Amino acid sequence: MKIAFIEPAIANVEPLGIAYLAQMLIDAGHKVKYFESPRKGFLERLKDFNPDVLAYSIATGKHRLCRELNSALRKKMNAFSIFGGPHCTFYPEFIESDKYIDGVCIGEGEFAIVELVNALEAKKKFTNIQNWWIRYKGEIYKNPTRHKFEDLDALPYPNRDIIYAENKDLSKSPIKRIMASRGCPYNCSYCFNQKYNLLYKGKGKISCHRSPKNIVGELKQIKKKYPFTFLKIVDDTFGISMDYDEFARLYKKEIDVPFLCNARANLLNESKIKYLKEAGCVAVTLAIESGNEFIRNKVLNRGLSYEIMSNAINLLKDNGLRVWTQNIIGSPGETFEMALETFKFNIKHKIDFAECFVLTPFFGTAVYEYCVKNNYLEKGTDIDKMSQSYWLGSCIKFKSLEEKNKFINFHKFFGFGVKHPWALSIIKQLIKLPPNTLFVLFNRFYDAWRISRVIRAKFTPLNFLTTVKVNVKFILSYFVKTDKYSKL
User: Where are the domains of the chain?
Assistant: First the structure.
């Protein structure tokens, strides 16, 4: 069969989930292509491919755009439409929202999608396949999840070629991304992992890690085929159950490319940091989220003390590693003074890049339930009205519209203010203005530049221009035009 994976925006990073699914389908004998709908000739090229299946990977907010796009496509072609990703996993009722949605996948998709497509091709019964809710002849069939697949080394490497065939600029970027593990044992209230772990309770290990040999094998393939001078390991928490010594030896010997990874403050120690540095790590991302004790541990359920976070940052800096923090403002019940505690924590520790998000209480998370229970959601908030991006707005109820706008605007200047504390008095005046596109653009371009100073990847003049180009396209399409951008 022919499967078309469709993205409603021009990607600025490889959609690795799609790349994994694509290779699984190709290995099963199917033909796969990847399309980005804003690109010139999208509809004509899609019709020429004549897919049997239209596939989408969606998060909450993005689901509206993909649903509308799919509906428009289905009126022009006969295909079976399937959706996966976090939105479907935690809200499979999404299938009921449009008659052109034929299936939604809950949880892991690799084996589920192959089984479904194989059944469709063989014209066999497909309404009883695990991990799928299926619409068939006016009925919706709801199936349970299968056991988690724990041997990540047995999965094929993600197929980047189909992504790069559509988005050639991504292939030219020397910054590449991989996933080295799956799952997280922690229960942060704003994260999907808590409910995901409940979904798979009794059906496999919470956290699974690829072997250092398998990770290095994928990277050797990347190094051989594409420009590659910097690596981002995108796991929520890298190396929870990994042999750091073996990874450091293999990575340094076979790859020797500087990299960045995500870590959790309470899991870092002198020994792990030593191995990371020996391997070639130059920067580590730590989720601080909030400098306020109540917001951090009672609302966001981080389970981290100020001292643990501070010690982890100091250890990293003492060993010559740059620190990238992730911060959340606009939590339920948070005052602007509380948000300033987070801001000042980053200044005190001289953070190299302080990334900031406005809290979105996604459906299915513990913080969503907290907001419902304590009346922190704005009137009329439902799953179809949530913002497409946690950079753009908030559905949290604040004491006034002015207070809400202060949070949304403060987010746009957070990273700049941390690096330039002298600007705080100016920022406090700017955030009194209504949220606007100019602030969004400033935030996206400044943060992109700041990230470049943290990773300091080596660029040729050509791939530097290409990387700038793809990020500008992404910023303009996703953050400025948002839902109105993708059109047939």
Answer: 2-142, 173-483
Strand order in the sheet with 103-105: 31-36, 2-7, 53-57, 80-84, 103-105, 132-136, 139-142
Q: Distance between alpha carbon 465 and the CA centroid of its chain, in Å?
A: 24
User: Please, how many CA atoms are within 13 Å of residue 16, restricted to the half-sphere of its CB?
Assistant: 15
Round to whole Å and give the CA distance between 264 and 287: 7
pLDDT in tens, 18-63: 999 999 999 999 999 999 998 889 999 999 999 999 999 998 888 9
CA nearest neighbour of 33 among 171, 168, 170, 166: 166
- Strand 2-7 to 175-178 pairing: unpaired
CATH number of 2-142: 3.40.50.2300
CATH topology of 2-142 equal to that of 173-483?
A: no
Tell me the CATH architecture of domain 173-483: Alpha-Beta Horseshoe (3.80)
Q: Which of 80, 165, 152 is nearest to 111 (CA)?
A: 152
Q: Give residue for tokens 């490889």.
A: 14
**DSSP secondary structure letter of residue 484:** G
For 90-137, write each residue's pLDDT tens digit: 999 999 999 999 999 999 999 999 999 999 999 999 999 999 999 999
User: How is residue 64 annotated by DSSP?
Assistant: H
